[in-house]
Fold these 4 entries.
Entry 1:
Amino acid sequence: AIRMTQSPSSLSASTGDRVTITCRASQGISSYLAWYQQKPGKAPKLLIYAASTLQSGVPSRFSGSGSGTDFTLTISCLQSEDFATYYCQQYYSYPTWTFGQGTKVEIK
Amino acid sequence: QVQLVESGGGVVQPGGSLRLSCAASGFTFSSYGMHWVRQAPGKGLEWVAFIRYDGSNKYYADSVKGRFTISRDNSKNTLYLQMNSLRAEDTAVYYCAKDPGLNRAAAGYFDYWGQGTLVTVSS
């Protein structure tokens, strides 16, 4: 199975900061990568798919990049509503799909 | 708008069974594959099962293979997960999630999620 490793596991940041989260796949997955945001007690929400395509309705301060094994999620100007846990997910290996362990973005 | 509403969670003893349901609305349910994804308390996300839009193919995570069965009733716009031989490690919030692939095999990611239903396996 393809393992997805996110770093860091958690980070502290302030409103207005630029935040970058990294996701590494244990083998090449082309651009078959999605990012999700999850707030406490809520379901995950799709932010980005195909590594860099923004889901409809997601603010443009979110962006994704990468291909192969290394990917990043960037929040250009952190807003209060962005404090949450973020997960990457590979969908290259049909039909088993795996998530990273999550990155919690906390208020500094 | 797309709405997914899970039900059927609860407390069950180890070795017991439970059936989860997911009522879908706001889209053509019969045209999209559907998934179950779970999250143990305080833990990350784990994909559990997928069923093709027409029910012709079903896939499972190794951790539930042989114990869980995914199914759907397109006439009722409802997805199911039959869980047998439950173990303590199956304790989790179970989410149903829509696959964005239209009338095809899975795209493999999840564009809409339900609010989840909690399953607790404990004696």
Note: The longest strand of chain A covers residues 19-25.
Entry 2:
Amino acid sequence: GDSVTQMEGPVTLSEEAFLTINCTYTATGYPSLFWYVQYPGEGLQLLLKATKADDKGSNKGFEATYRKETTSFHLEKGSVQVSDSAVYFCARGGTSYGKLTFGQGTILTVHP
Amino acid sequence: DTAVSQTPKYLVTQMGNDKSIKCEQNLGHDTMYWYKQDSKKFLKIMFSYNNKELIINETVPNRFSPKSPDKAHLNLHINSLELGDSAVYFCASSPAQGLNQPQHFGDGTRLSIL
């Protein structure tokens, strides 16, 4: 079935470090791909999305490119801030009924 | 002007009790969802309704019964609560069933079973 695999966390970085969180997905169909962010005590918020191969989603300095050849959608940010500390979820659209399949989430902590 | 609102935010109760969680969205969306997030942050879909009709039921015990009185509301009733039901439950909505639609989430209901 559909699945999404994210890099294991937690990830701990210093402020202004470069961030990469890896995400790969199963290649059935032509899913849209999403990154969601969950700040402490809150629900998930859409961070960025890409709907077809080679699309780049970007928001708040974060970027991810839909790579069909490697079935990947890695999240990157050039310079993280303490306020980026959160849980990040990669997700793929389903083949029916708008179902999203989420990765296991990656906890990011950024220290000053 | 909260888009997806859930009540209550916290729910602490005893094993064996019955409880309900309510969800409302004011986005005019057709599709609503319930997710369960465990202590390791893993998210799993439980149910989805499109315009008051059940379209996804992901092998959830029948102690869990969703109800959608109209397309803006999706409530979750849980009978005979068990320790393993302790989790954060998220409601979400999306404009339609299409593959490219992002979902909008509520802030969650933190359920603790004593």
Note: Chain B touches chain A through 28 residues (CB under 8 Å).
Entry 3:
Amino acid sequence: DVKVTQSSRYLVKRTGEKVFLECVQDMDHENMFWYRQDPGLGLRLIYFSYDVKMKEKGDIPEGYSVSREKKERFSLILESASTNQTSMYLCASSSTGTGANEAFFGQGTRLTVV
Amino acid sequence: DAKTTQPPSMDCAEGRAANLPCNHSTISGNEYVYWYRQIHSQGPQYIIHGLKNNETNEMASLIITEDRKSSTLILPHATLRDTAVYYCIVRVDSGANNLFFGTGTRLTVIP
């Protein structure tokens, strides 16, 4: 069964902390994504990566950074967590190739910054 | 990528067909129509996609109009477990395969 695994379902962090959200996929996918989801706003893309060590900004990259040192792992970093980063964070992966390629999502990490 | 328009909410009786519409009037010739759904507190789940022709799989059917400006996702026999937010997305099969999610349609299946 194909899988995208996020390291935590729930996290509580303090304002100013450095926060790491980890995502691992076992499908050998080239592309990986980080989204955040807030009520009434749908999913918004933070960053994505189409190859190891490559990254591209999404719609709302401010306050975040990412790391992709290995193909299967994509990390989202909150350099100094703030209360407005309280949200549900979703990781996804997809392959690159001819034709359409669906994305597979993890279960999400609900982050609360206090 | 083309923008999509979906009704914010719909109800459907259990056992009946659920027909979820999506408008994508600015779709380009090389853009696919994708449908995902998100059950409460879970990550989105892929349902089906199509380019021009109607498509069917074990979960649903996708009907795309001839001009490709709109589509309908059909769940043939809705169950309570189909209660979810359904997202219609159109995109080019680009190298990054980015997905732009709108706010979707909240489908409630009623016993």
Note: The radius of gyration of chain B is 13 Å.
Entry 4:
Amino acid sequence: KQEVTQIPAALSVPEGENLVLNCSFTDSAIYNLQWFRQDPGKGLTSLLLIQSSQREQTSGRLNASLDKSSGRSTLYIAASQPGDSATYLCAVLDSNYQLIWGAGTKLIIKP
Amino acid sequence: DVKVTQSSRYLVKRTGEKVFLECVQDMDHENMFWYRQDPGLGLRLIYFSYDVKMKEKGDIPEGYSVSREKKERFSLILESASTNQTSMYLCASSLGTSGGALGYNEQFFGPGTRLTVL
């Protein structure tokens, strides 16, 4: 059964730093992987979607990579800002077409 | 912009009550989903629907039912609320795909309903 893990559960860094969030999954047979952002009271927002045939996707200061063989994805945030504070979730679309979610990393950017 | 709205942001109910959570999307999406989110567990799929009047069980359907009478509206029903159903409930919608991969397209989420059952 596919399992998705995000470590650490929480992270606090000073403004301006570059940072990496990690997502690992146990079964490499996935169709895609998505990164979401969750703000309190605002639901989830999709940030990046990487198809299984892709290695990375970029959007502004965000870059997500995917290494299927090792079961890992990273979300790189450049030049972090206080507005980046949120919970970041990753989810994989597994071989049964089910979205399997990680529990999230709560990110705090200190001004 | 896609908009997914949920009928309540906060809801407090008593054990045994029948509870209705409503979700409406305005982008003519075929697929709609109900998740619950609990600390440390991530999102878990309760039910989903890929067409009007169609529904499929997710990972944790016990204690829940759903209704989709119109394409834009997907309702989650707790027939007899229990304290272990206290949670954040999230609704989402996405475009359908001819290949049937429900998670293939980006899902758009509502703001969530925080339900407390006393």
Note: The radius of gyration of chain B is 13 Å.
